[in-house]
Amino acid sequence: MVETRRLGGPGYPLVERVRRSVEHYRMAEQGGTVLVGVSGGPDSTCLFDILARLGATLDLSLAVGHVDHGLGADSAEVASRVASEAAEGGYEAHVVRAPDLAGPNLQERARNFRLGFLSTVAERIGASRIATGHTLDDRVETTVARLIHGAGTDSLAGLRPADGPRIRPLIEIRRPETRSYCEELDLAFYDDPANHELRFERVAVREDVLRSITDRWGAGAMDAIARSCERLSEDSDALGGIADRLYPRIATSAESGVVLATPDLVTLPRGLRRRLLEQAVGRIRDRSGGIEAVLDRLEDDTATPASFAVAEGITVGVASDAVVVTRGPAPGGMDET
User: Fold this and answer.
1) Lesser CB count within 10 Å: N end or C end of the chain?
2) How is residue 4 annotated by DSSP?
3) Residue (of 332, 294, 291) closest to 312 by Cα position
4) What is residue 148's three-state secondary structure?
5) Using N-to-C axis directions, what is the helix angle for 175-184 and 136-148, rounded to 10°?
6) pLDDT category, 333, cuts 50, 70, 90?
7) Which stretch, 72-81, 151-160, 204-213, has highest mean pLDDT?
8) Nearest-angstrom CA–CA distance, 312 and 102
9) pTM metric for this prediction
10) Do 148 and 110 contact (CB within 8 A), yes or no?
11) Angle at which helices 136-148 and 220-250 pack, to 10 degrees?
């Protein structure tokens, strides 16, 4: 039988704040199953304990997912402890050992493997949501890191409270609060040494950038940046909704790809033109700046027809009557730039 956790008592104020976040952002369905990603660190340990306390109130069933990335000497021990504690509490635990992840972009490949594993387990057990222990600090760090790389509005919104099946119940909780919660309730957790290695971008942003900001403007600066993240998220959703409504009116499918009416495009603000072009091109990383070049050409009334290379072999041809997005060679009669 699954252990019933007491809602009140030590740590209750944090439990109540998480409950409000879950309800405000509609993170979970009554009677649904939530797969909780538990790394063994203080954030995910706090998350699982709080959701266990809220289980009866929110009518949730929980299961645990853990990936042993094999990157630390204690990783197997941590995996064993996470699985044992879940089983002792009456919860189903799913644990996997990751393959060798050595090489460049280590954290990104580890993240992709972890998300893939959690998605597979969620589908297998019928979990409608996957909960991860991302905090307000994680949201701010993500936004600042993306700002450094010149991201657009969607990316700058950072980590959303709910994103499809993925939910982040701790998104309004500071990282020090999760540690304090674990210590108050005497919950064992693992401190990953990688969280202090400056060679990782997220750690560098935390230690070199955000520490300077909080030293100068105080801890409230983190909350202020998080509010900006939330407003960016709201604006991103609003612009995306407008673009979704406009797209069927402006874009048509053709043998060559997607055709967008130039006269309609040029009446729109640049931000909406970009979104419509990105929708036609698809979800790719346009490192060549082809979409920006198309937008510049649309603003030049005297320009002759031309085509521009985008990522993955996509070209965008621009003429006075149409913008044609095609995979492969540029449309006839247009010089490629």
Assistant:
1) N
2) P
3) 291
4) helix
5) 150
6) very low
7) 204-213
8) 27
9) 0.87
10) no
11) 60
269 contacts: CB under 8 Å, gap ≥ 6: none
Helices 12-24 and 42-58 cross at an angle (nearest 10°) of 70
d(CA 114, CA 123): 14
DSSP E strand boundaries for the chain = 33-37, 61-68, 92-97, 129-131, 162-163, 166-167, 251-254, 257-261, 306-309, 314-318, 322-327, 335-336
CA distances (Å), origin 294, targets 7, 17, 152, 299, 324? 56, 46, 17, 9, 11
| Domains along the chain with CATH numbers | 12-232 (3.40.50.620), 255-336 (3.30.465.60)
Burial of 251 (0-12, 13-18, 19+ CB in 10 A): buried
Cα 18 to its chain centre, rounded Å, is 19
How far, CA to CA in Å, does 3 sit from each of 49, 85, 184?
11, 11, 20
Highest mean pLDDT among 3-12, 37-46, 246-255, 290-299: 37-46
Write the single-letter amino acid at 323. Answer: V
